[in-house]
Write a structure and sequence with these properties.
The complex is a heterodimer. Chain A is an all-alpha fold. In chain A, 75% of the residues lie in helices and 0% in strands. Chain A has helices at residues 5-36, 44-55, 58-78, 83-90, 93-105, 111-128. In chain A, α4 (83-90) runs antiparallel to α6. Helices cover 79% and strands 0% of the residues of chain B. Chain B is built from 6 helices and no strands. Chain B has helices at residues 2-28, 36-47, 50-70, 75-81, 85-96, 103-121. In chain B, α1 packs antiparallel against α3 (50-70) and α1 (2-28) runs parallel beside α5 (85-96). The two termini of chain B are 15 Å apart. The chains are: A mainly alpha, B mainly alpha. The interface between A and B is large, with 56 and 55 residues.
Chain lengths: 139, 124
């Protein structure tokens, strides 16, 4: 496969969507689940009542919609790019989710945790500079 | 303990699910036509691949484990820890999808793992 400009643009655009919608979805789910609260006894009845509360939470549905947008973009990009290329590139979202958690949910993030997240990003940057497809393409 | 178990399920089921979905999508081929009707036909085609359903099942399990973890933990803790799926993903891509992974990429994966370790340590 030649790495054509068209393919490159498509890849970048979809990865951008992945990086925005995945963290946003997770933050919305976090917000929703804090409202729902944890299961206390893990009995069938308890889990059912938690499930009903999950299904009636607006934040959860918004989060699911955001994650579905992410998932469609992800599935599309995986039809031409390698999984081991897309997954690292999309993991910028790990930093984004911390930032959104801090800004939107007011989560306290210690300097040590920021350091860990920064290292995750560094690893991602190193991994990201590899060609999008390494497996042979069938003729 | 409950937390550790949930994080493991999120990483293993999530990565396993993604690998299965990738395998299914590669079987179908590259998307070249982005018109709505063509995309709908493409989705229908994806739904008859067995690996797709195994992948969706595993991702569903990972999703509910994530919800359970988020009910008592911060998003900024749970999600960075799931970056461990990098290591799982790299190993899985080699074994299951026959992708080649360069030394440079392995170094990146190792740094990510170190970052996740620091995030885990930041909890105590």
């Amino acid at each position: 496969m030649t790495d054509s400009p068209g393919l490159h643009f498509k890849t970048v655009l979809l990865i951008l969507m992945i990086v925005v919608f995945a963290p946003l979805g997770n933050v919305l789910l976090g917000k929703g689940m804090k409202t729902v609260g944890p299961a206390t006894h893990w009995t069938a009845a308890d889990l059912w009542s938690v499930f009903v509360r999950i299904c009636s939470s607006g934040y959860i549905w918004l989060g699911v919609a955001s994650l579905m947008t992410f998932f469609v973009a992800y599935m599309l990009v995986l039809t031409w790019a390698d999984y081991s290329y897309v997954q690292p590139a999309s993991s910028f979202s790990y930093a984004m989710v911390a930032l959104l958690g801090y800004l939107l949910l007011g989560e306290v993030i210690t300097p040590l945790r920021w350091l860990g997240i920064a290292m995750i990003c560094l690893g991602v940057l190193i991994v990201g500079h590899t060609p999008p497809r390494t497996t042979a393409v069938k003729a | 303990m409950r937390e550790f178990l949930l994080l493991c399920v999120i990483v293993v089921a999530g990565t396993g699910g993604e690998l299965c979905v990738t395998r299914a999508m590669k079987q179908i081929g590259e998307v070249t036509d982005f018109r709505p009707l063509a995309l709908a036909r493409f989705i229908l085609k994806a739904l008859v691949v067995g690996w797709m359903w195994i992948g969706i099942g595993m991702m569903t399990i990972a999703f509910f484990a994530l919800l359970a973890a988020l009910s008592f933990e911060n998003v900024s803790f749970v999600v960075p820890v799931t970056a461990l799926s990098y290591a799982a993903g790299a190993v899985g891509a080699v074994l299951f999808l026959r992708e080649r992974i360069s030394a440079q990429r392995w170094i990146g994966v190792l740094i990510v793992c170190a970052g996740v370790t620091i995030v885990l340590l930041s909890k105590h």
